Amino acid sequence: MRPAHAMRSSAVWIALNEFPRDHLLLIDQWTTHYASKGLTFAGEPVSRAVWGFWSLSFEVAIFFMARRFSLLETGALAWGAGYVVMWLVVGNLGMLPMSILHYAIPWSLLKAFGAVWIVKKLN
Q1: CA–CA dist 103, 36 (Å, integer)
Q2: What angle is formed at CA 82 by the lines to CA 78 and CA 83, rounded to 5 degrees?
Q3: Do the Cβ atoms of 82 and 61 come closer than 8 Å?
Q4: Above pLDDT 70, what percent of the chain?
Q5: Is 69 among the domain residues?
Q6: Which of the 8 DSSP states describes residue 81?
Q7: Is the confidence at residue 77, as pLDDT, over 60?
């Protein structure tokens, strides 16, 4: 398989996991948390485009890490860089509802390692 196919497949996996988690399963926690700060949880097209760019950037990073590291190493690096760092920043800004983490941590591990597995399998 060509690298572009592996990247597209991985990007689809990431996108298919983002929307259901944040906009179906966790929407109440997000909207309540944002409302407590006098804000509206971002669901506008511009916000979704930014998260789409984040997903694409995450996938590109996975692709390049996977060329050098094992599945386990790439998955751990990707998860740490993609999620743990994001949660630290968003949490530090007070914008992360901590109540989502018991769902978000295992889901993000599955998403990161699934994306790495796809890239490794298709390359």
Answers
A1: 21
A2: 115
A3: yes
A4: 98
A5: yes
A6: I
A7: yes
Q: If pLDDT is split at 50, 70 and 90, which confidence band does 69 have?
A: very high
For the chain, what is the domain count?
1
Per the CB < 8 A criterion, the answer to whether 51 and 84 are in contact is: no
In a domain, 36, yes or no: no
116: amino acid identity, one letter: V
**How far apart are the C-alpha atoms of 51 and 102, rounded to whole Å?**
21
What is the domain range of residue 49? 3-31+43-122
- Alpha helix segments (H runs only) across the chain: 3-20, 27-36, 45-66, 71-79, 85-92, 101-122
**Confidence at residue 2, expressed as pLDDT on a 0 to 100 scale:** 66
In a domain, 51, yes or no: yes
Tokens representing residue 67 in the block: 């060329």
Residue 50 in this model has a pLDDT that exceeds 80: yes
Of the pLDDT bands very low, low, confident and very high (cuts 50, 70, 90), residue 15 is confident
Question: 37 lies in a domain?
Answer: no
Spatial contact of 93 and 39, defined as CB atoms under 8 Å apart: no
The span from the CA of 121 to the CA of 98, in Å, is 34
